[in-house]
Amino acid sequence: MNGMNWVRGFNATVGWVAPQAVASRLRAEFMTPRVAAPRDWELPLLAQAERVTLRFGLSALRWGSGPVVLLMHGWEGRPTQFAVLIKALVGAGYAVVALDGPAHGRSPGREANVVQFAHALLEAASELPPLKAVIGHSMGGASALLATQLGLRAEALVSIAAPSRILTVLRGFARHMGLPAQARAHFVRLIEEKAGMPAGRLDVARYRLDLPGLIVHAADDPQVPYSEAEAMHEAWFDSRLLRLEAGGHHRVLADPRLHQAVLELLAELPAQAPSRALAS
User: Fold this and answer.
1) Which domain holds residue 129?
2) 217 closest CA partner among 154, 261, 174, 179
3) 130, 149, 192, 245: which one has the fewest Cβ atoms less than 10 Å from its Cβ?
4) Beta partners for 239?
5) pTM of the entire predicted model
C-alpha cells in the first residue's frame, strides 16, 4: 500500500468514528499553503521587479508603466509564474502589478481561501489607478471572478485554468482524501465557516458578470477539468473561450496563444484617460 492509499484508508476508517476531528484536520491542511521557491527561469524577472507593500501588509511586485493590469496567482503559486505573460504585457505598454496572495510569498497570514484572495484583490485595487484588466490563474481566477461580485471594477477579466464552482473543488478534495459522507459534510461546513461565505454562492452561474472576459483552459488540465471552462463560458455572456489542447494546469501560462489572446482583448478596449501614478 502506498502512502496516499494509507492516508485515504486511515481517513475512511477514522472518518466513520470521529468525522468532525478528521474534517477539522483536513480543513487546516486544505487552507494552509506550502512554500514553493521560484524556479530558475523566474529569477531574472523577479530581479527586475519593484517590491510594493500595499494596505494591511499585502505584498506585490510591479513592472513597466502604462494602464494597470492586476495579476493573481493560484494556490501555492507565485507572481513570477506569469513571467512570460508579464514580459508580453510590459512590452505592449502596460504596467503589471502581481500580488502575493494572502499567506503566500511576503503577504501576511498562515491560512488562506478564495474569499481572502478576492478581498486582497479589492484592497489592491483601492490603492491602484483604474484597472485595465485583472488576470487570475486557477484559484486566482476564481477569486477574481468573486471579487467582481464584491465590488471590484476593471475593464476586462481573464480567467486561466480556474474552476467555475468552488463546491466542486471542496467535494473533490474530500473524496480524494478518502473522507466518508458525514466527514465530507463537516469538512465543507468548516471551510464555509472560515471563509465566511456559503460554498454554494461561489458559483459563476450565480454571478452577474457585466464586463468583457477571456477564459483560457487546457483540455489536458489534470487538476481543473476543461468542463469548468465551458460552464463558465456559458454563464458569462460577454466572454470568449480559448481551448488549448495541451498545457496542463501550469504550462498553459507560458503558451504564446494565451498571451496573444490577452493582448487582443486589451487592444479592443477603449483607451483610458491618463491616470495617477502607482502608489509606492
Assistant:
1) 49-165+211-269
2) 261
3) 245
4) 213
5) 0.93
Q: 260 and 136 in one domain? A: yes
| pLDDT tens-place string over residues 80-90 | 999 999 999 99
Sole residue written with cell 496563444: 257
For residues 69 and 140, membership in a common domain is answered with yes
CB half-sphere exposure, 33, CA atoms < 13 A:
26
> Per DSSP, which regions of the chain are E strands?
50-53, 59-63, 68-72, 95-99, 131-137, 157-160, 213-218, 239-244
pLDDT tens digits, residue range 240-267? 999 999 999 999 999 999 999 999 999 9
Please tell me the total count of domains within the chain: 2
Check whether residue 87 and residue 64 sit in a common domain: yes
Angle among Cα 113, 118, 119 to the nearest 5 degrees reads 100
